[in-house]
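Might I ask for a little of your time on a matter of protein folding? What I wish to show you is a protein chain and, alongside it, a tokenised description of its three-dimensional fold. I should value your view on which stretches of the chain appear to form regular backbone elements. You will find the record immediately after this paragraph:
***
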Amino acid sequence: MTSLPLIPVDPDAPGARRASMPPRHLADLDLAGRRALVAELGEPAFRAKQVSTHYFGRLVRDPAEMTDLPAATRERLADRLLPRLLTPVRELACDDGATRKALWRLHDGSLVESVLMGYPDRVTVCISSQAGCGMACPFCATGQAGLTRNLSTAEIVDQAVYLAGVAASGAVAGSPPRLSHVVFMGMGEPLANYNRVVAAIRRLIAPAPEGLGLSQRHITVSTVGLVPAIRRLASEDLSVTLALSLHAPDDDLRDELVPVNQRWKVAEVLDAAWDYAARTGRRVSIEYAMIKNVNDQPWRADLLGRLLAGKLAHVNLIPLNPTPGSRWDASPKPVEREFVRRLRDAGVSTTVRDTRGREIDGACGQLAAAEDRDTDRTAETTA
């Protein structure tokens, strides 16, 4: 059995370990906080709104393009409000440019990933909330890498702002030019970086120039099932969608696939999810990776159907994207179709996730792992 991960539900609580965090950025602050910082620099408060309008309203991240600011002022404000957080390492595209994956290096050398997915009616970005992940799910590339550190609020938001700029440039043919959806399904367990993730959500939904002005209902937050954090999120007066990474309906298997289940069992996790649905009116998305000969048996489909029947839930079956050298593989399509049939016969809304980005290491953590392997090989050949 996989060992139980250590989980700080609130990493900012007294005694929680703090890693090296990046310099403060305007996206870490609300508009009032930005005005106060600008005033400390001896500049008029309206400069905060000017810089914020460039960043959130016009998606301009380069201070050199903020030509309505005096050059000297621009440099000083940029140094304090717009430090560079994300340095591109690789940017890959597939699906005729509709899927774009970015690998970033952070100020401390950590690697994180983001993905932009264009559809005829929307543009969605998948963003990371941690560098690595401490949940130790054995079929997940990020989980096997372990946790490096939490991301700052601005490091989370900056991924969305960058990719919103890509969409606005018209680079995603056949899709609207405006980012509309954000999913916290990249690297990391969002609810283990609770305070900063919630702050990032508030920045994403605040109208410009304070934030990106997205709809709460177009933001999805995933979790492996940190029960206290789910209950806390339900009290935040937010209408975001909760996505629960269940992956098994029975405790015996889920203890192995999702080690946090050793602390909070299936019944307790689902109870918290139903409370979230009741308080927010939002349907819970049940994420279920289809793993060949592991969790795809018909009896498990029937058990899952019984657990979810009559609940405000939707099952999102995910064809597994195997990591290199992994013993885990995707379920065959006939098995997947039978799983879907049984869930729908039980009255449970079910879809199969569109498989995007397989040729560019589309599953979270795969591109970062490949970069680490390349770096290790380079170090070996130059040693």
Residues 206 and 338 are 43 Å apart (CA to CA).
